[in-house]
Amino acid sequence: MSFFLKKLASYALLPPGLFILGFLLLALFTRGLVRRSALLFGLLLYLLSIEPFKDLLFYPLEAPYRKPVYGNAQAIVVLGGGVYNNGYLKPSSYRRLVTAFLLHRETGLPVILSGGAPFTKLPEAERMRQLLKAFGVDESLLYADVKSRDTYENALFVRRLCEKLGCRRVYLVTSAFHMGRAERLFRKAGLEVLPYPTDFRLEGRYNLFSLFPKYSVLYDSSAALREHLARLFYKLKGHL
Length: 240
Fold this sequence. Notes:
Layout: H1 2-13, H2 17-28, H3 32-48, H4 51-62, E1 75-79, H5 91-107, E2 111-114, H6 124-134, E3 142-145, H7 151-165, E4 169-175, H8 176-188, E5 192-198, H9 215-237
Parallel strand pairs: 1-2, 1-4, 2-3, 4-5
Helix pairs in contact: 2-3, 4-8, 4-9, 7-8
C-alpha cells in the first residue's frame, strides 16, 4: 500500500499531474466559462498523459510498420530524429542510428545519413557519421546529406546521393510513427523503399499505473500529434 501511495503522490505532485490538479481546483472554485474551460483543459491534458490514449494516437501511425521488410537493398538510409543545440543527438536519432548500425553489421551495406543543421552548427548527419565511425564502420561506406531540413528534403537529397552511388533500392530507417510519411515521400522521389522501422511508441499492455498521467507519455503524445499535423500539412502542399 505504501508503494502505491508513493507512486500516487509522485504522479500528483509532478507535472503533468500537478497541472491537472490545478485545473480541477480552478474548476472547483469558479463558474461559467472559466469552469468549463478548466475542466476541458484538465481532461485534455489528462488524456494526453495516459498510455491508452497515447496509443490511440500512435496506432494508425505505427500499425502498418510492426516489422521490418527485408529484401535486396543496395544501401541503408537513416533519417535524423533531432539534435540538441550542443550537438548531441536526441533519443530518437540514437535509436535510429543504432538500428542502422546493427543492420549494417548484418548486411555490410553502405549507410546514407540524412539531416541538416537548421538550428545547430554541426549538421545532424555529420554527427551521426562521427558516431558510426567510432562504432567501427568503415568511413568509405558512410555518406551524409547535411542540407536537408525536413522529411521532404530528406527524400530529395538522398535521391541525389543514390543517383551518384548508382543505387535505387534502399532500407529506410526511421521511427515507426514517422515511417508512413517518409516512405511515401521517398517513393514519390523515385526510390524503391524497404521500410525498416524502429523507435516504437505503442505500449499495448496496461495496468493500473497506465491510467496515471506521466510526463514521458505526454511527450510521446505530442510527438504523435506533430506527426498527424505534419501529414496534414504535406497533403495540403501536395507532397503526399
